[in-house]
Amino acid sequence: MHTDARPSLTQVPRNGALPASYAQIGFQLLERTRRGLRLGDSAALRLSGALDATRLRLALEAIARRHEPLRTTFSSGPDGPLQVVRAEPDVSLPVVPVDGIGEAELERRCEEEAARPMDLRRGPLFRAALLRTRPAEHVLVLTVHHALTDAWSWWRVLLPELGQWYTALGDRREPGLPPLPIQYADYSHWQRRWLECREASAQLDYWMGRLAAPPEPPGLSPAPATPPASGGQAARQPMRLPGRLAEAVRDLGRWERGTQFMVMTAALLALLHLRTGAEDVVIGTRASVRTRTELEGIIGPLINVLALRARVVGTMRFRDLLRQVRATLIAAYAHRELPFEVVVERLRQPPARARHPLFDVMVSFDQVPRQPPALAGLGVAELPYRPRAFYPLDLVLSQEGGLLDGTLVADPRVVDDETAALVGRQLRALLEGAVTAPDAPLAAHRAAVRDQS
């Protein structure tokens, strides 16, 4: 029985069961089905100057006290995973001396620290470490399990508040942060209630119609002959577009009343068609579900995965594919609140697809600016960020100076390094041809793609 009214998003009592959100359930399923996959999300900040490590630890503790996800673990309930919120934070800040090491070794040590396993039941799922490279030089490595965070949580909440708390504690005062109207567990409870209303039913009908009888994901390449242990390091191919090409991508998007992201998505679909011959193609994208002001100041995985299905044939123009992608994305965003996990469950995907439901290729646009926090008396800079491979191939895009930048991330157990590099070259070549001649049939770009081999 569905209700007409959209439920209100309010605090719920903490004396009862707190169900995990569908995003959290999805991450836990991913961790169980892909052995060796590290689901800790991390940030590494270089701190220059006279650091007060005790004050830094107290600042991290204060943030964990303010935000429940940073002191959350998980348990099993009769109806699925539950969130368990601890009354007090469990935050330590070990100082690890690594004096005299070079930049490459420093990055490796940061990766090693971030890759340490996390126990969903015992926790902690938020941890910190301080690598001391010189007496007045440190690197702060923060790690939060993906089931508890997203990019907004990092760069618009956690890290800015770290700067505010560190400065305020030095001045022996409170930072003056407004009280939080809700926490992530309140959103999880709301999500369950929302799924019982007619709006959710209508969104489910949309997705079931779009994804009825889904095709098999097009193959990218054979798996490496010897898959790396524990997942290995993801292959990362920079996708920074040369200035003139980036401008042409932007201009074509504007001409078609779309965006650069839509152009890149269309190019990726066209490439999958040209590489595999597939004409019914599904890829994935990520979308924020922070659609209400109450959600802006909280930490939690407020993201959803959307499946984008396109009909791609060699005789169609790139311009027509771009228009199709524009319409598909607009409709998908209008139905983005229905959890992807619910869609997959209702489609009853066969066991062979349990690891990567519906698609093997993801494309997403990171719209959250990565601005290091201001810590009083310290110079702060971010060490290079290394996106993780949750899918065989993941194109992560961002914007620099109004133009697109990005990274192609490949899971080394599914896509070998050579194929990942080839896909990057082919995508760039296809883009150059498509934005120069958007009215040419897609098949006309096959030679340029093949020439990159």
Radius of gyration: 23 Å
Estimate the strand proportion: 15-25%
What is the total domain count?
Answer: 2
What is the percent of helical residues?
25-40%
- Spans of at least 5 consecutive residues whose pLDDT stays below 50 are none
CATH architecture of the largest domain: 2-Layer Sandwich
Largest sheet: 5 strands, mixed
Mean pLDDT over the residues: 90
Helix tally equals 12
Q: How do the strands of the widest beta sheet line up side by side? A: 5-6-7-2-12
Distance between the termini: 56 Å
CATH class of the largest domain: Alpha Beta
Structural class: alpha+beta
How many β-strands, per DSSP?
14
Overall outline:
globular
CATH topology of the largest domain: Chloramphenicol Acetyltransferase
Spell out the CATH superfamily of the largest domain: Nonribosomal peptide synthetase, condensation domain
Q: Order of helices and strands, N to C?
A: EHEHEEEHEEHHHEHHEEHHEEEEHH
Quaternary structure type = single chain
Question: How would you describe the overall organization of this protein?
Answer:
The strands form four sheets. This protein has a five-stranded mixed β-sheet, sandwiched between helices. It has a four-stranded mixed β-sheet with strand order 8-14-13-11, with helices on one face. The chain has two domains: 18-185, Chloramphenicol acetyltransferase-like domain (Chloramphenicol Acetyltransferase, 2-Layer Sandwich), CATH 3.30.559.10; 198-370 and 385-450, 2-Layer Sandwich (Chloramphenicol Acetyltransferase). The protein has 453 residues and is an alpha+beta fold. The protein has twelve helices and 14 strands.
